[in-house]
Write a structure and sequence with these properties.
Blueprint: H1 12-15, H2 24-33, H3 37-49, H4 53-65, H5 73-84, H6 89-101, H7 109-123, H8 131-144, H9 147-162
Helix pairs in contact: 2-3, 3-4, 4-5, 5-6, 6-7, 7-8, 7-9
Length: 169
Amino acid sequence: MFRWIGVLVLTQAALAAAPAHAGPFDDGIDAYYQNDFAKALRLWLPLAEDGNPNAQNNLGAMHENGQGIAADMQEAARWYRRAAEQAHTDAQMNLGRLYSTGQGVPQDLVRAHMWLTISTDRSMGGMLWGAPDALAARDAIAAKLTPEQLTRARVMARRCVESNYWECN
């Protein structure tokens, strides 16, 4: 299988010259890339708790990688799920990856395929940081599934998206 680390979300402001005060999310990006993980965590946690999917995905990555906080795969999965259920494609990919390996969640290749399918289907029109890896992982998982499991994963993905992420379990 593929080895990925959690994907952080970058903003245009983080890629260009930042203004004097860009806001807590962008300030967290700056802190993160200066390896000040404690500051990034302090800036992103309130945003994540208020429902910001970019901050939620980034907290998932920090929990996964033990950056500024002890590594905790269950917390990583929890934050990824919160962002994934808000249509965050990187978080969907990260959650699918965790299901594929059984880290922080029970291993479930059908559910892994579901989340990777949702992520790759949604990202085809734009840039997803891990899109090539997500496509390859989804296809590798598909090769391990029975035709019935593959059909079930596709039905689950469709139901999840059509329900606006209310029916994803």
